[in-house]
User: What shape does this take?
Amino acid sequence: MRIAIMGTGGVGGYYGALLAKTGQDVTFIARGRHLQAIRESGLQVKSVLGDLLVSPAQATDDPVDIGPVDLILFATKTYHTDEAARLIMPMTDDRTTVVSFQNGVDAADRIGAVVGKSHVLGGVTWLSAAVEGPGVIGQYSQFRRIVLGELDGTKTSRLERISEVFEKAGATVELTDDIARVLWTKFVFISSVSAVGSLTRVTFGEYRNVSETRALLAEAICEVASVARSKGVTLDGDIAEKTLGFLDTSAPGIKPSMQRDVEAGLVSELESMVGIVVRLGVELGVATPVMRFAYAMLKPGHILATQPKLQS
Assistant: This one.
Protein backbone atom coordinates (compact mmCIF):
# COMPACT_ATOMS: atom_id res chain seq x y z
CA MET A 1 0.00 0.00 0.00
CA ARG A 2 1.27 3.48 -0.88
CA ILE A 3 1.06 5.60 2.27
CA ALA A 4 1.88 9.23 2.96
CA ILE A 5 2.41 10.57 6.49
CA MET A 6 1.13 14.14 6.58
CA GLY A 7 2.87 15.45 9.66
CA THR A 8 5.88 13.44 10.84
CA GLY A 9 5.56 14.37 14.50
CA GLY A 10 5.28 11.95 17.39
CA VAL A 11 2.12 10.16 16.26
CA GLY A 12 2.68 10.32 12.49
CA GLY A 13 6.36 9.49 12.76
CA TYR A 14 5.79 6.54 15.07
CA TYR A 15 3.00 4.90 13.11
CA GLY A 16 4.73 5.68 9.83
CA ALA A 17 7.87 3.94 11.06
CA LEU A 18 5.89 0.87 12.14
CA LEU A 19 4.19 0.71 8.74
CA ALA A 20 7.46 1.14 6.86
CA LYS A 21 9.13 -1.64 8.86
CA THR A 22 6.37 -4.06 7.81
CA GLY A 23 7.06 -3.41 4.13
CA GLN A 24 4.53 -0.72 3.29
CA ASP A 25 5.56 1.98 0.80
CA VAL A 26 5.67 4.95 3.19
CA THR A 27 6.72 8.54 2.47
CA PHE A 28 7.14 10.98 5.33
CA ILE A 29 6.23 14.66 4.92
CA ALA A 30 8.34 16.85 7.20
CA ARG A 31 10.17 20.17 7.23
CA GLY A 32 13.46 21.81 8.14
CA ARG A 33 16.10 20.02 10.20
CA HIS A 34 13.72 17.14 10.92
CA LEU A 35 13.38 16.45 7.19
CA GLN A 36 17.11 16.81 6.61
CA ALA A 37 17.92 14.33 9.37
CA ILE A 38 15.39 11.78 8.09
CA ARG A 39 16.85 12.03 4.59
CA GLU A 40 20.44 11.72 5.77
CA SER A 41 20.17 9.19 8.62
CA GLY A 42 16.67 7.73 8.46
CA LEU A 43 13.88 8.00 11.02
CA GLN A 44 14.86 6.71 14.45
CA VAL A 45 12.27 5.63 17.01
CA LYS A 46 13.12 5.25 20.70
CA SER A 47 10.21 3.27 22.14
CA VAL A 48 9.26 1.50 25.35
CA LEU A 49 7.92 -1.21 23.03
CA GLY A 50 11.17 -1.57 21.09
CA ASP A 51 13.45 0.79 19.19
CA LEU A 52 13.54 0.83 15.41
CA LEU A 53 15.18 2.65 12.54
CA VAL A 54 13.74 3.30 9.09
CA SER A 55 16.77 3.77 6.85
CA PRO A 56 16.76 4.77 4.12
CA ALA A 57 13.49 6.64 4.58
CA GLN A 58 11.47 8.31 1.84
CA ALA A 59 10.84 11.90 2.91
CA THR A 60 9.87 15.21 1.35
CA ASP A 61 8.40 18.61 2.20
CA ASP A 62 6.30 18.75 -0.98
CA PRO A 63 3.28 16.44 -1.43
CA VAL A 64 3.43 17.12 -5.19
CA ASP A 65 6.60 14.96 -5.26
CA ILE A 66 4.62 11.96 -4.00
CA GLY A 67 1.54 11.93 -6.20
CA PRO A 68 -1.65 9.95 -5.50
CA VAL A 69 -1.49 7.38 -2.69
CA ASP A 70 -3.81 4.76 -1.19
CA LEU A 71 -3.72 6.11 2.37
CA ILE A 72 -2.87 9.47 3.91
CA LEU A 73 -2.25 9.33 7.63
CA PHE A 74 -3.08 12.88 8.70
CA ALA A 75 -1.23 13.74 11.91
CA THR A 76 -0.44 17.45 11.92
CA LYS A 77 -1.10 19.72 14.86
CA THR A 78 -4.74 20.82 14.82
CA TYR A 79 -3.87 24.45 14.13
CA HIS A 80 -2.38 23.34 10.78
CA THR A 81 -5.42 21.26 9.74
CA ASP A 82 -6.94 23.57 7.13
CA GLU A 83 -3.63 24.38 5.44
CA ALA A 84 -2.50 20.74 5.49
CA ALA A 85 -5.82 19.58 4.03
CA ARG A 86 -5.21 21.82 1.02
CA LEU A 87 -1.64 20.55 0.69
CA ILE A 88 -2.66 16.88 0.45
CA MET A 89 -4.80 17.43 -2.64
CA PRO A 90 -1.98 16.39 -5.08
CA MET A 91 -1.79 13.05 -3.22
CA THR A 92 -5.52 12.40 -3.53
CA ASP A 93 -7.40 10.60 -6.29
CA ASP A 94 -10.49 8.38 -6.44
CA ARG A 95 -8.84 5.57 -4.46
CA THR A 96 -7.33 7.67 -1.65
CA THR A 97 -8.46 7.36 1.96
CA VAL A 98 -7.54 9.95 4.60
CA VAL A 99 -7.38 8.95 8.27
CA SER A 100 -6.80 11.63 10.89
CA PHE A 101 -5.06 10.70 14.15
CA GLN A 102 -5.16 14.27 15.40
CA ASN A 103 -6.38 15.43 18.76
CA GLY A 104 -9.76 17.11 18.89
CA VAL A 105 -13.18 16.21 17.49
CA ASP A 106 -13.59 18.22 14.28
CA ALA A 107 -10.82 16.91 12.00
CA ALA A 108 -13.10 14.85 9.75
CA ASP A 109 -15.32 17.85 9.06
CA ARG A 110 -12.42 20.19 8.37
CA ILE A 111 -10.49 17.77 6.15
CA GLY A 112 -13.64 16.55 4.42
CA ALA A 113 -14.60 20.12 3.52
CA VAL A 114 -11.44 20.29 1.40
CA VAL A 115 -10.89 16.79 -0.04
CA GLY A 116 -14.48 15.53 0.09
CA LYS A 117 -16.10 13.70 2.99
CA SER A 118 -16.17 10.42 1.06
CA HIS A 119 -12.36 10.24 1.24
CA VAL A 120 -12.30 10.49 5.04
CA LEU A 121 -12.29 7.48 7.35
CA GLY A 122 -12.78 8.19 11.05
CA GLY A 123 -9.78 7.43 13.22
CA VAL A 124 -8.79 7.70 16.87
CA THR A 125 -5.54 6.68 18.52
CA TRP A 126 -4.23 6.39 22.05
CA LEU A 127 -0.47 6.92 21.99
CA SER A 128 2.12 8.99 23.83
CA ALA A 129 4.90 10.05 21.46
CA ALA A 130 6.87 13.17 20.55
CA VAL A 131 9.73 14.42 18.41
CA GLU A 132 12.85 14.35 20.63
CA GLY A 133 15.15 15.88 18.06
CA PRO A 134 15.70 16.04 14.29
CA GLY A 135 14.95 12.59 12.89
CA VAL A 136 14.19 11.11 16.32
CA ILE A 137 10.78 10.08 17.69
CA GLY A 138 10.22 9.10 21.33
CA GLN A 139 7.32 6.77 22.18
CA TYR A 140 6.43 6.45 25.87
CA SER A 141 3.13 4.58 26.37
CA GLN A 142 2.61 0.85 26.73
CA PHE A 143 -0.48 1.32 24.57
CA ARG A 144 -0.72 2.02 20.83
CA ARG A 145 -4.44 1.60 20.32
CA ILE A 146 -6.33 2.57 17.17
CA VAL A 147 -10.08 2.66 16.53
CA LEU A 148 -11.35 3.07 12.95
CA GLY A 149 -14.84 3.59 11.61
CA GLU A 150 -16.71 4.93 8.61
CA LEU A 151 -18.35 8.26 9.35
CA ASP A 152 -21.76 6.82 8.45
CA GLY A 153 -21.27 3.68 10.55
CA THR A 154 -21.16 1.22 7.63
CA LYS A 155 -18.70 -1.65 7.29
CA THR A 156 -16.61 -1.33 4.12
CA SER A 157 -13.76 -3.14 2.40
CA ARG A 158 -11.43 -0.14 2.82
CA LEU A 159 -12.12 -0.12 6.55
CA GLU A 160 -11.12 -3.78 6.83
CA ARG A 161 -8.12 -3.35 4.52
CA ILE A 162 -6.67 -0.39 6.43
CA SER A 163 -7.36 -2.11 9.73
CA GLU A 164 -5.29 -5.11 8.61
CA VAL A 165 -2.37 -2.86 7.62
CA PHE A 166 -2.19 -1.33 11.11
CA GLU A 167 -2.66 -4.70 12.82
CA LYS A 168 0.28 -6.16 10.91
CA ALA A 169 2.35 -3.18 12.09
CA GLY A 170 1.71 -4.16 15.71
CA ALA A 171 -1.02 -1.74 16.76
CA THR A 172 -4.11 -2.80 18.68
CA VAL A 173 -6.93 -2.08 16.21
CA GLU A 174 -10.69 -2.01 16.77
CA LEU A 175 -13.55 -1.23 14.39
CA THR A 176 -16.65 0.73 15.37
CA ASP A 177 -19.99 1.71 13.87
CA ASP A 178 -20.10 4.86 16.06
CA ILE A 179 -16.84 6.73 15.55
CA ALA A 180 -18.29 9.95 17.03
CA ARG A 181 -18.79 8.19 20.34
CA VAL A 182 -15.19 6.94 20.32
CA LEU A 183 -13.81 10.36 19.33
CA TRP A 184 -15.64 12.08 22.16
CA THR A 185 -14.80 9.34 24.67
CA LYS A 186 -11.13 9.95 23.99
CA PHE A 187 -11.66 13.71 23.91
CA VAL A 188 -13.21 13.67 27.37
CA PHE A 189 -9.88 12.30 28.58
CA ILE A 190 -7.35 14.19 26.48
CA SER A 191 -9.09 17.56 26.74
CA SER A 192 -9.38 17.46 30.52
CA VAL A 193 -5.85 16.15 31.22
CA SER A 194 -4.40 18.64 28.74
CA ALA A 195 -6.09 21.48 30.62
CA VAL A 196 -5.15 20.31 34.12
CA GLY A 197 -1.67 19.17 33.11
CA SER A 198 -0.90 22.46 31.40
CA LEU A 199 -1.91 24.31 34.57
CA THR A 200 -0.01 22.09 37.01
CA ARG A 201 3.05 21.51 34.75
CA VAL A 202 3.63 18.06 36.29
CA THR A 203 3.14 14.46 35.12
CA PHE A 204 0.13 12.16 35.53
CA GLY A 205 1.83 10.41 38.43
CA GLU A 206 2.62 13.67 40.19
CA TYR A 207 -0.96 15.00 40.31
CA ARG A 208 -3.43 12.14 39.93
CA ASN A 209 -3.31 11.24 43.64
CA VAL A 210 -3.43 14.81 44.94
CA SER A 211 -7.02 14.98 46.19
CA GLU A 212 -7.67 18.62 45.32
CA THR A 213 -6.24 18.29 41.81
CA ARG A 214 -8.02 15.00 41.19
CA ALA A 215 -11.33 16.57 42.18
CA LEU A 216 -10.73 19.45 39.77
CA LEU A 217 -9.88 17.01 36.99
CA ALA A 218 -13.06 15.05 37.70
CA GLU A 219 -15.09 18.26 37.31
CA ALA A 220 -13.35 19.00 33.99
CA ILE A 221 -14.12 15.47 32.77
CA CYS A 222 -17.81 15.90 33.62
CA GLU A 223 -17.93 19.26 31.84
CA VAL A 224 -16.54 17.85 28.57
CA ALA A 225 -18.88 14.86 28.81
CA SER A 226 -21.86 17.17 29.34
CA VAL A 227 -20.95 19.14 26.21
CA ALA A 228 -20.74 15.90 24.20
CA ARG A 229 -24.12 14.68 25.40
CA SER A 230 -25.67 18.06 24.62
CA LYS A 231 -24.42 17.62 21.05
CA GLY A 232 -26.28 14.31 20.86
CA VAL A 233 -23.26 12.04 21.33
CA THR A 234 -23.92 8.85 23.31
CA LEU A 235 -21.36 8.24 26.07
CA ASP A 236 -21.12 5.59 28.77
CA GLY A 237 -22.93 6.55 31.95
CA ASP A 238 -19.77 5.92 33.98
CA ILE A 239 -17.40 7.72 31.64
CA ALA A 240 -15.97 9.88 34.44
CA GLU A 241 -15.01 6.82 36.49
CA LYS A 242 -13.58 5.05 33.43
CA THR A 243 -11.59 8.13 32.42
CA LEU A 244 -10.05 8.46 35.88
CA GLY A 245 -9.36 4.73 35.84
CA PHE A 246 -7.51 5.05 32.53
CA LEU A 247 -5.45 7.89 34.03
CA ASP A 248 -4.60 5.72 37.03
CA THR A 249 -3.32 2.87 34.86
CA SER A 250 -1.28 5.12 32.55
CA ALA A 251 2.50 5.40 32.95
CA PRO A 252 3.22 7.95 35.71
CA GLY A 253 5.67 9.99 33.64
CA ILE A 254 3.28 10.86 30.80
CA LYS A 255 2.43 14.42 29.84
CA PRO A 256 -0.06 15.21 27.02
CA SER A 257 1.43 16.78 23.89
CA MET A 258 -0.40 20.06 24.48
CA GLN A 259 1.13 20.30 27.95
CA ARG A 260 4.62 19.65 26.58
CA ASP A 261 4.14 22.47 24.05
CA VAL A 262 2.83 24.86 26.71
CA GLU A 263 5.80 24.13 28.97
CA ALA A 264 8.21 24.70 26.09
CA GLY A 265 6.62 28.04 25.23
CA LEU A 266 5.50 26.74 21.84
CA VAL A 267 2.24 27.22 20.00
CA SER A 268 -0.17 24.65 21.45
CA GLU A 269 -3.49 23.04 20.56
CA LEU A 270 -5.29 25.12 23.18
CA GLU A 271 -8.10 26.15 20.86
CA SER A 272 -8.87 22.59 19.69
CA MET A 273 -8.43 20.99 23.11
CA VAL A 274 -9.86 23.48 25.58
CA GLY A 275 -11.24 26.49 23.71
CA ILE A 276 -13.67 24.35 21.71
CA VAL A 277 -15.22 23.03 24.94
CA VAL A 278 -15.76 26.57 26.19
CA ARG A 279 -17.25 27.73 22.88
CA LEU A 280 -19.56 24.72 22.56
CA GLY A 281 -20.59 25.16 26.18
CA VAL A 282 -21.73 28.70 25.45
CA GLU A 283 -23.46 27.60 22.26
CA LEU A 284 -25.28 24.69 23.91
CA GLY A 285 -25.97 26.31 27.28
CA VAL A 286 -23.68 23.96 29.22
CA ALA A 287 -21.68 25.37 32.16
CA THR A 288 -17.92 24.70 31.90
CA PRO A 289 -16.34 26.65 34.79
CA VAL A 290 -13.17 24.55 35.13
CA MET A 291 -12.47 24.51 31.41
CA ARG A 292 -13.24 28.24 31.18
CA PHE A 293 -10.74 28.89 33.97
CA ALA A 294 -8.08 26.75 32.27
CA TYR A 295 -8.68 28.48 28.94
CA ALA A 296 -8.45 31.95 30.50
CA MET A 297 -5.23 31.12 32.36
CA LEU A 298 -3.53 29.49 29.36
CA LYS A 299 -4.65 31.95 26.67
CA PRO A 300 -2.07 34.71 27.41
CA GLY A 301 0.84 32.28 26.98
CA HIS A 302 -0.78 30.92 23.83
CA ILE A 303 -1.00 34.42 22.36
CA LEU A 304 2.64 35.10 23.19
CA ALA A 305 3.71 31.84 21.56
CA THR A 306 1.94 32.75 18.31
CA GLN A 307 3.61 36.15 18.02
CA PRO A 308 6.74 36.50 15.88
CA LYS A 309 9.93 36.42 17.92
CA LEU A 310 12.04 39.59 17.75
CA GLN A 311 15.59 39.12 16.54
CA SER A 312 18.26 40.45 18.93
Q: What stands out?
A: The longest strand covers residues 120-126.
